[in-house]
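Entry type: protein chain
Record version: 2
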Amino acid sequence: MRVVVLCADPAGAEFVDGSVPAILRDLGCDVICARFDLGGLDEAALVRRSPAIVVVDAGDEVERAHLCLRRLGSFAPLAEVPALVALTLPRLPAFDFSRGASDFILKPVVPAELYARLRQLDWKSAVFGTDESVKVGELVIDIAGYEASLRGRKLELTRQEFELLRFLAQQRGRVFTRDQLLQKVWGAKYEGGTRTVDIHVRRLRAKLGATVGSLIETVRNVGYKMRGTGATGDGG
């Protein structure tokens, strides 16, 4: 698993026993260390091989953690990568979980707990598909069972909402015009207008919530597509 660790002193932290980078290496992770301000990160390399998790090793520095999370949100190669924040217990009440953290862990870090939280975040953000199911982050589409769930909760979808969601999820990253979606999801004999697609996309986004619903992107003057990776925050 590839992990980016952001901290105050990346050069020093890498070689300190019990530090987050050292623990991660002992766990077999491929670790990249950088400063809270993201300085020194190779954007091109991160795009070529995206990390599974970002760990913000904040400790007592809560305000730095907040600023770091804000920077991550606008740093394209890491904007959608889950972020785990490491904090000390006394500073935990001051941390604002609405800033974009996917999870947290207390310092000093227990290696077994860190490993478990990394695996959980990696699973939540995973994307895969088979003939019977498709998983995009925390959205799971059971094709064989004809139902979809988000964070383990079944979504109440109409037949056409399910079919549209299934089709876009199975064709992640590809853009389809409204006419193409009508033909492939509703069928060649459907006589309704393309406005039907817009209505169903709007309803799907509402049922998925703001964060996960944003997976379905509007491509201006073309149509719609589903992004290849998901976010895991709470939707509204």
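Comment: The first helix runs from residue 10 to 13.
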